[in-house]
Amino acid sequence: MPSSSLADDVRSLLSAFEVDPATLQGGSRLVRSPIDGSTLAEIAETSSKAAEHAIGQAHDAFLAWRRLPAPQRGEFVRLIGEELRAHKSELGRLVTLEVGKIVSEGLGEVQEMIDICDFAVGLSRQLYGLVIPSERPDHKMTEQWHPMGVVGVISAFNFPVAVWSWNAALALVCGNSVVWKPSEKTPLTALAVQALVARAARKFGGVPEGLTTVLVGGREIGEQLVDDRRVAVVSATGSTRMGRVVGERVARRFGRSILELGGNNASIVTPSADLDLTLRAVAFAAMGTAGQRCTTLRRLIVHESVYETLVPKLARVARTISVGSPVAGDSLVGPLVDGDALAAMQAALSKARAAGGTVHGGERVDVNGERSFYARPAVVEMPQQVGPVVEETFAPILYILKYRQIEEAIALQNGVPQGLSSSIFGNDLREIELFLSAQGSDCGIANVNMGPSGAEIGGAFGGEKETGGGRESGSDAWKAYMRRQTNAINYGRTLPLAQGVTFNVEEGSANA
Ligand code: NAD
């Protein structure tokens, strides 16, 4: 039984969620808190046989669930949202303990879950199709949407619960079942969410067994989910390296995938930018969540006329921002997830120096001893967009580049393999509209006078190129969890063919 004050805290939180304490000990997977490196739990991994069974059950659950009217499915999601509202502070704290997010960001993640549940409840009465004019007399064409089947959700450590909800809330109202494989680094928050869903199911009066399940494990169990033909949709969030494997494997069996992969997000600071607002926005976007958001600001492209005003201030913020434990005090920058993340950060900074970069900040900070990994955010002035600047390093490093012409800035912004999020700071309408136009940012998200991070659930979330092309959350992202069916209906007594084709057989021959 792991013993530390954080482990005690986790145990009492999970027991309040009615998670069986026996699941937290004796297993082969150690779950550590990035806050101090202490072991929070030793949990058992789902065996391949149990995963096979869970996927089968999820498939059977789908067959029953799809028969329930969508607004009733929405009622179940409404109850999930109620549980999340009632347990927001406990689940938010668990996110902080398991991932190391500062308290307000842990709570914000749960708020995002509540928001998507609300959205999905409304959506459950709006899964609209079209009525399309037919070219044939006495004919009608319609389009309707049907559920896909089992939706597999593979999630990353950095949004351990919100990503599940973006997928699950929509998938459930659309009539699907959900099998979730959370990150191996964050199974505890997943077990807590599953327990809340079980409560909502009881209040609902029961849902088909296996409608939502959790598989605990790493890559192998993820691959089992990916390869199973009964899993109609695989929504995978994580690194581009993972997405390349998952995307190919799902395509090989003609399954559908929603890929939400790495980003390398940039902001352009134009001469007309409000520099005070820009400074605050850039600090949050680059240093918040210790640089561990897919939408974290990683490259700042600054016009030469404002460079000397803005960049020294940013370097000062990096040198002075509070780095520390998210449970003691009010630090703005918490820990990196593990030692590998710190090593990757230091390797990227070495490469940047070798490529002529000037590094401000970026050093390791001793907060809770050797087994935890805190770092001061780095601001790195680069002569060119080369080496580590075109890669995603999942840590708080902000590379700064200088530009003269807006076209050059947009080319730099687009000149990386990833295409998730982007933004521009300024008040010149021409420059802003150019950035938002087809010749502008090539990303899935393009913001104005704010950083690239911190999306709301109302819009579709996702990005292009090596970010994978998937969209989740708001707008019409729900369509990815449904299959489209086109219906042509003849309510007349003749059989006119489309495109004027004639195909006359002798009258009465059908009865001959
Ligand atoms: P990761 O790729 O290491 O792991 C993500 C998930 O994929 C985990 O659950 C892991 O077990 C699983 N996985 C790994 N290999 C697999 C395989 N071959 N088959 C099936 N599953 C496999 O990512 P991470 O370190 O947990 O998260 C950080 C990365 O996630 C960053 O690149 C970040 O940009 C990205 N991310 C993207 C978004 C987005 O919406 N675009 C959101 C959050 C995080």
TrEMBL record:
Subunit and interaction comment: Homotetramer.
Molecular function, one GO term: aldehyde dehydrogenase (NAD+) activity
Stored SUPFAM superfamilies: ALDH-like (SSF53720)
InterPro entries in the cross-refs: Ald_DH/histidinol_DH, Ald_DH_C, Ald_DH_CS_GLU, Ald_DH_N, Aldehyde_DH_dom, ALDH7A1-like
Keyword list, A-Z: NAD, Oxidoreductase
Top-level taxon in the UniProt lineage: Bacteria
Protein name: aldehyde dehydrogenase (NAD(+))
Active site per UniProt: 260
Record domain Aldehyde dehydrogenase: where: 31-486
CDD domains reported for this sequence: ALDH_F7_AASADH
Keyword Acetylation: no
Class of enzymatic activity (EC top level): oxidoreductase
Pfam family, one: Aldedh
Organism: Lichenifustis flavocetrariae
Family, per entry: Belongs to the aldehyde dehydrogenase family.
This enzyme's EC code(s): 1.2.1.3
